[in-house]
């Protein structure tokens, strides 16, 4: 089952992650709090603001995939074990090029947290555990947020993605209003205190901003610009390929532009946006003839241990 809103959100998250990774992969020295707009735009709008969305969507996709294979096998958790297991060597290989990559961590946390959680009936306890784990991890931040966000996403899938997307426009506006006010207040606090992403205020601000982004995208998908936002959906469907390819493209761009030599957020953001546009164009062209992206197809073949048809003909 493909849900356009979920694919758009995944493509949107990949956009932000690509910009952030352009800074991280090139090793560009991040300027200090006294260096102005570029630094704070990076810290309050991008850094640690899209990673929570990506993590939430991973847990959501786990639930959707697990539900989807129920009718195809007598051992859906064994299939998911293989799916997560094969992500480990892929993540380990990717980490040679991108030391901060998340696939390896996602695979391990998925095995340790999501697979056991799939034995819990219903959605309430899973969501509660996810909320508590996320709140507790806010004191540390970084990858410690992943288990809780995974569970929140999985709990949302158990509750029903279509039911969540079917919430009234008024309710979604209320969610956007609350999370938006929190995001502005917390980001202002972060700037006022002059603290970067490792602090508790920055972590909480990141979570609030991520939630506001999600609510805004879902709300905008109900407006006239739905068609324009829908352009992100193909990249959302090939997010694994896009995430991996972005690393190579950023490294290649850095060899030419030497982005990592000095703090230049304009250059980094422009490069990241260019890489994203290349990914977006590739996803559109590829999916005209294929059902899955290149790495998505290979991952699916490994999961089922057979060649999965990928053509549209």
UniProtKB/TrEMBL annotation:
Please give the start and end residues of each transmembrane region.
12-30, 50-66, 103-123, 135-157, 202-221, 228-253, 265-287
Against Pfam families, the record matches this protein to:
DUF418 (PF04235)
Residue ranges of every copy of the DUF418 domain listed in the record = 167-306
**Keywords, A to Z?**
Membrane, Transmembrane, Transmembrane helix
Entries under InterPro entries matching the protein: Bact_Transport_Assoc, DUF418
Q: Which PANTHER family match?
A: HYPOTHETICAL MEMBRANE SPANNING PROTEIN, INNER MEMBRANE PROTEIN
Which protein, by its recorded name, is this? Answer: Putative membrane protein YeiB
Q: Which organism is it from?
A: Actinomadura luteofluorescens
